[in-house]
Amino acid sequence: MISLAALRYRNVLAAHGGPVARIETGVFPVCGRRMIQANARLIPGLTPQRAMSIYSDADGSGTHPRASVARHMAVSEALERWAFHAVVRSERAAEYGFDVDPSSSGMSAFPGLVRTNARRKAMLEAIERFSMIAWWEGRAEGRLFETDWPGVSAVAIDGPFGGVTVIAFARTDYGGYAYGHAAEESFGAACERAVIELARHEWVLRSSWLAFVSGQRSAPADLFERRCLFFSSAEGHARFRRRLTARPSGPMPRAEVVSDRDIPGPWAEYATVWRFALRPPSDGFLQEEDGEYFFW
C-alpha cells in the first residue's frame, strides 16, 4: 500500500485550516519493543464528546515504531470517526449499512493513491468483527495456538471471505487479563497486529483494573468499557475459556455484504473513507444489558 499521508495530511491541523486540533505522542512498549503511540483530537463540533473512564477520549490513535507513521495512523482514525458521526444518523445512513449495523465496524480512512487501499482495510475490519461475533455466539470454530510472544496465546477463526481473525490473550503482570484482535490474510500478520492491540489494552487497563477490583472505582457507564473490565477479571477470563473449549453449533454463518463503497464528504480532501459492512450474525454485540459479551 502506497500512503500519501505526508502529502495529503500536510494541512490537516487546525493551524493550517484542517480538522485536527492537535496530535499527542508518547513512547509505548509492545512486548519489549519500543513503539510510538499517537492520539489525534478533532476540532470541537465534528464529533460528540465521549465520557470515557478507561480508554482515551481521543478521536484517533495509532501505534508504530516510527513517530510519523503513528501520527498518520491517528489522523486516519480521527477522519474515520468524523465520517462515521456525520452519516450514522443522517438520511444517508442506510446507503452505508448503518441501518443494519450502526457501529463503526468496517470503516477505514486511508490517504492512498487509489481507493482500494481504504477498501482493503475496511473489509478486513468487517471480517474481524463478523468472525468474532460468530465465534462468541457458538457459530464458528476457533483454534487455539501458542504464539512466538512469551505468555501470549491466540484463537484463530477462519474468515467468511478467506483470511483469518486472531484473538490474542495473556495474563498481565498485575493479575488481570488482556486481549487484542485483528484480521489479515495470514495468521502471522493478524497475530502481530493483535499483539499490538493486546499491549494497548493492557496499558490502558492497568490503573483502572486495579482500582476496579479493589472497589475504589465503580463499573464505567460505557457498555464496551464494562465488558473490557469484566473480561479482564478471573471470572470474565473463565467465561472466555469456556467458550474456547466449546464446540461450534454449526458452520460459519453466510456473510451478506450490505455496503461496499466510499463515503464522500469534507474528509475526502485528506483521505478516502470506506465502509464495508456485513450483516451481523445477530445484534447481541450491541445489547446494552449484556456486559458479558466478548465485544468492545
Textual characterization of the structure:
It is a single chain. The protein is α+β, with helices and mostly antiparallel strands and 296 residues long. Helix content is 32%, strand content 23%. The protein contains 6 helices and 10 strands. The chain has helices spanning 5-8, 67-87, 116-136, 187-213, 223-232, 234-245; strands spanning 20-30, 33-42, 60-64, 107-110, 143-146, 153-158, 164-171, 177-184, 257-262, 272-278. The strands form 3 sheets. It has a 4-stranded antiparallel beta sheet with strand order 5-6-7-8. Strand 6 (153-158) and strand 7 form a beta hairpin. Helix 5 (223-232) crosses helix 6. The two termini are 28 Å apart. The relative contact order is 0.16.
Pick out its properties.
alpha+beta; 4-stranded antiparallel β-sheet; 3-stranded antiparallel β-sheet; 6 helices; globular
Radius of gyration: 19 Å
Number of strands: 10
Average pLDDT rating: 92
Low-confidence stretches: none
Rounded to the nearest angstrom, the distance between the terminal CA atoms is 28 Å
Q: What's the story with the biggest beta sheet?
A: 4 strands, antiparallel
Q: Briefly note the structural class of the backbone.
A: alpha+beta
Oligomer: single chain
Strand content: 15-25%
SS element count, helices: 6
Enumerate the strands of the largest sheet in spatial order, edge to edge or round the barrel: 5-6-7-8
Overall body shape: globular
